[in-house]
Amino acid sequence: MLTAAAQTATQSELQTAGEPSATGEVQTVPEDSKAETAPTPREIGDTTRDTTTLSKIWTLDECLRYALENNIQLRQSRNDYLSGIEDTKEAKAAMLPSLTASTMQGFTNYPSTNVSDRNTYTGTYGIDAGLTLYEGGKLRTTVKQQQLQNRIDELSVAESENDIRIAIVQAYLQALYAAEAVTVAANTAEVSQAQRDRAEELWKAGSISRVDFAQLESQLASDRYQVTVARTSLDNYRLQLKQLLELDITEEMNLAAPVIQESEVLSALPAKAAIYATALEAMPEIKRGELAVESAELGIRQAQAGFYPSVTLTAGIGTGHMSNGGYESGSQVWNRFNENVGLTLSIPIFSNRKNRTAVNKARLEAENSRLSWLDLQKTLLRDVESAYLDAVSAQSQYRAATEKERYARESFDLTQEQFNLGVKNTVELITAQNEWSSARQEVLQAKYMALLNIELLNIYQGRDTTTIN
């Protein structure tokens, strides 16, 4: 389960994935632009390399399917579950009779007699069976407890699958955020390049000073640097996702860039209480905690069985022969044929307090299991409340940031026109551009924070991801 601290860390990472920002879909940049180019909407990959071979483009669904099928730790968890199934079969078989066959062949030499026919050869043969008739219900309790453990192991696998889903969704969204940051950084650098070229013409014409021209050149260099920072951030997040998928070093990690509609970012959320109620039923760790309490209560009954007597039934048949017995071996086998049956009653009287200690510890374990179950419910409540609040806040911020970006863009366009006419100076132009860039960044951050927390709420409710496919 994703903790509130982990969500906070993810939010911080989204905010620092790149200084540039975006207002919406991934855009393309003309190839003849002097600024750095950005990834196209079709794929998010390494745009600095000219690849000659086609590489796989990963969607979120494909990432999830691949991870759930191939994750090493998850496969180990599934093997542990299958191993527990074998333990259950063994526990059930312990209630059945045991049956063993045995034989012993012996030779005895008497060297002091110096008579070889005094040496003897013996053989015995037997079949023995045993059955526990009563042991205070310990065997049946063990079977029930093991069956519960099988279910617990199965839920643990489901819990691990959810953890993988959350990690993949986080990494994928971070990569998408970084990709849009690259696009916006490249577009910003392209605008700065055009401003610098226009300023050069004005400077040569004597309309602006060398200082104003130098300021715009500095702004262009800064924007190009931000492209490099954003591109590095994208590479890092793609690498994180690749490592989560445990891909080979030769595999490329190119991501499909979905077109995310505003309606998806601002999708209506169910009531918080309804989400939590659904999560209590859907999240496997909650059911696992409940079954752990039942298993611990069975552990008390199993410990109490130590105070009860045990009854064991044994039976067997046997025979044998001896070479120096005066009879043929075949006759001896028949004549020495025997049967036996026995009933053993074992009554515990004093066990150095082992049984009492076992019962007390089992009760404490049951209480700890109940507390752990309660803690799981409270942890889930905190996670749901945090994700819900973050989703609602991000949606509100997205609405406000979108409006702010629209006016900042309009202000920048007007300032740019006035700069070209000589009405505005360089400082005013750069300030307007930076305000627009900051507004775009706020839109981008709010957009992906809303998407992330909506997806977390979907996972908590046992739903498939729906907004970024």
From TrEMBL:
Where does it sit, as one GO cellular component term?
A: cell outer membrane
Transcription listed as a keyword:
no
Regions of biased composition (Polar residues) lie at 1-15
One protein family per Pfam: OEP
Q: Which GO terms describe its molecular function?
A: efflux transmembrane transporter activity; porin activity
| SUPFAM superfamilies for the chain | Outer membrane efflux proteins (OEP) (SSF56954)
The yes or no answer to whether the keyword Membrane is present is yes
Q: Where in the cell is it found?
A: Cell outer membrane
Q: Where are the stretches annotated Disordered?
A: 1-49
Q: What UniProt keywords apply to this chain's record, in alphabetical order? A: Cell outer membrane, Membrane, Transmembrane, Transmembrane beta strand, Transport
Which protein family is named in the record? Belongs to the outer membrane factor (OMF) (TC 1.B.17) family.
Know the name of this protein?
TolC family protein
Please report the organism this UniProt entry assigns to the protein: Candidatus Alistipes intestinigallinarum
What does UniProt list as this organism's lineage? Bacteria, Pseudomonadati, Bacteroidota, Bacteroidia, Bacteroidales
